[in-house]
């Protein structure tokens, strides 16, 4: 059993999941402000939020600052599972490709395919939690419901609202991690003279914290810019109906399809609306991704040592069981 596990993939997954947990918690208030700002689709004269700071000021003025953390538990659960599944799938599929193809490294095209496949696996597993966390974040301050109550208030199929667009957005991490991996490979190759001789028990090569942060920021910025219109449509589809919308028939209802979301933005905000909140998205996602990758790279060696210790413990336990 111990030898049957892919320990390097498990190390990647665990390191990535821990990094996601920390980065999500640290940046959550910014994420809540960003999500509420993106979810609003109004004509220019009716905007409630003219910029990101308006969301923060609303929370402060209503003495609901702690509501900026509404849905944090669900978001952390979603982030942890999502990153664990993604990093495990990505690492496993990449190693499988190298083993089957006999190549020494994964090319850009193959890396994109592997990253997209890993992203699709992640989306299918975590979509309900993603939908619920978006509804909790976009609820009126102080009015957010719990995880189970939010899941139960509609049909279970609604938990998969935006699944199609989420699958489309697997291009985002695919682009991000492909760019990151290529930049990381080139940087480590330059530093190869300082690397110890190959050893099956040695830890995988890792970047320094600062290098991982910079490469993470660059790769995520590029991925975010290329996929942002779809990102905003996804937030609109998954967002909660606020109290103001329920009291007024003149307010737009949240679209349930990507075509509906695109049409709504085009009619009410024009072309610039497709990029409303882009600066906030880049700020949040770049900081989050760079922090995640920095933590992941920084703890990967410690995680690898822990996994080796766990593997040895399992092997010893198996031998003892067989001997009896």
Features:
324 residues; mainly alpha; Mitochondrial carrier fold; 12 helices; 70% helix; 0% strand; globular
Structure, explained:
The protein is mainly alpha-helical and 324 residues long. It has a single domain, classed as Alpha/alpha barrel (Mitochondrial carrier fold). It contains twelve helices and no strands. The protein has helices at 7-26, 28-39, 52-61, 72-101, 108-138, 147-152, 163-168, 171-190, 209-238, 243-247, 258-269, 278-323. Helix 2 (28-39) crosses helix 3, helix 4 (72-101) packs antiparallel against helix 5 (108-138) and helix 9 (209-238) crosses helix 12. The longest helix has 46 residues, at 278-323. It is globular and about 70 Å long. The chain starts with 6 loop residues before the first helix and ends with a helix. Residues 243-251 have low confidence and may be disordered. It is found in: Peroxisome membrane.
The CATH class assignment is Mainly Alpha
Q: What is the share of helical residues?
A: over 70%
Quaternary class? single chain
- The class by helix and strand makeup works out as mainly alpha
Shape, principal axes of CA atoms: globular
Low-confidence stretches: 243-251
Supply the number of structural domains.
Answer: 1
First-last Cα distance: 17 Å
Number of strands: 0
Question: Main sheet?
Answer: none
Q: SSE order, as H and E?
A: HHHHHHHHHHHH
State the fourth-level CATH superfamily: Mitochondrial carrier domain
Indicate the mean pLDDT.
Answer: 78
Main location: membrane
GO molecular function: ADP transmembrane transporter activity; ATP transmembrane transporter activity
Membrane topology: Multi-pass membrane protein
Subcellular location: Peroxisome membrane
């Amino acid at each position: 059993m111990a030898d049957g596990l892919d320990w390097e993939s498990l190390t990647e997954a665990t390191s990535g999941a821990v990094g996601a947990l920390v980065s999500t918690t640290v940046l959550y208030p910014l994420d809540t402000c960003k999500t509420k700002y993106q979810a609003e689709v109004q004509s220019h004269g009716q905007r409630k939020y003219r910029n990101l700071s308006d969301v923060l000021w609303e929370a402060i003025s209503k003495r609901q600052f702690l509501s900026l953390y509404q849905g944090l538990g669900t978001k952390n659960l979603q982030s942890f599972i999502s990153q664990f599944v993604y990093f495990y799938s990505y690492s496993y599929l990449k190693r499988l490709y190298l083993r089957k193809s006999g190549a020494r490294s994964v090319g850009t095209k193959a890396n994109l395919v592997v990253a997209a496949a890993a992203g699709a696996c992640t989306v299918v597993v975590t979509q309900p939690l993603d939908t619920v966390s978006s509804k909790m974040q976009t609820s009126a301050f102080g009015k957010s419901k719990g995880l189970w109550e939010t899941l139960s208030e509609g049909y279970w199929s609604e938990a998969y609202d935006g699944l199609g667009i989420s699958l489309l957005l697997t291009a985002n991490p695919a682009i991000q991690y492909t760019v990151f991996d290529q930049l990381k490979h080139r940087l480590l190759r330059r530093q190869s003279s300082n690397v110890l001789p190959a050893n099956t028990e040695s830890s995988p090569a890792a970047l320094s914290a600062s290098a991982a942060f910079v490469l993470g920021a660059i790769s995520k910025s590029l991925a975010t810019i290329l996929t942002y219109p779809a990102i905003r449509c996804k937030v609109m589809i998954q967002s909660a109906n606020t109290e103001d919308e329920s009291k007024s028939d003149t307010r737009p209802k949240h679209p349930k399809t990507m075509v509906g979301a695109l049409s709504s933005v085009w009619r009410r905000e024009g072309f610039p609306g497709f990029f409303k909140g882009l600066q906030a998205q880049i700020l949040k996602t770049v900081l989050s991704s760079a922090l995640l990758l920095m933590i992941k790279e920084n703890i990967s060696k410690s995680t690898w040592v822990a996994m080796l210790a766990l593997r040895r413990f399992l092997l010893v336990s198996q031998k003892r069981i067989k001997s009896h």
